[in-house]
Amino acid sequence: MGKVVLLCGSPRLEGNTAQVLEECAAVLEREGIATEIVLLAEMHIRSCTACGLCTGGACALDDGLNAIIEKVREADGFIVGTPVYFGTARGDVLAALQRIGMVSMSSDAFLSRKVGGPIVVARRGGHTATLQELWMFFLINDMIVPGSTYWNMVFGLAPGEARNDEEGIRTVRRFAENVAFLVRKLE
Q1: What is the CATH number for 91?
Q2: Domain containing residue 43
């Protein structure tokens, strides 16, 4: 059975982004893929310092990100969910992704050919710019990014509102089905 790690970049443990990732994980589980949701809200992720010490497969900064790196290294897929703040992904999400990517590129290329992609949640706008920003992480790390019936974006402000975005949730569910399909094909 394959496994997908879902990184939740929301500071709200039960906010819309977390709820959307739970929907995504439920579909993956139904499709026979094990999941683990990792919450950045419980961490204080620092930015990459460009120290160059990650060639051994771990980041030199000791803030808990290496535990996430190990989870991703062992998984078959990696999905990142973030709320949109001021038209971009949250800063700690970008810091985490830059460091995860740097460790992968500087050591064993563990991200190469993993299946995954981004999911973004916002009140009104900034979705597509944030998706494009995050897709660059997946593509430069030689990952396989499946599509869906629309972009992986969901609308909502107050916790729970995102579940009312029927098209957004349907899109995320189809994305999860496609991730599961590809993970199984690559096994």
Answers
A1: 3.40.50.360
A2: 3-186
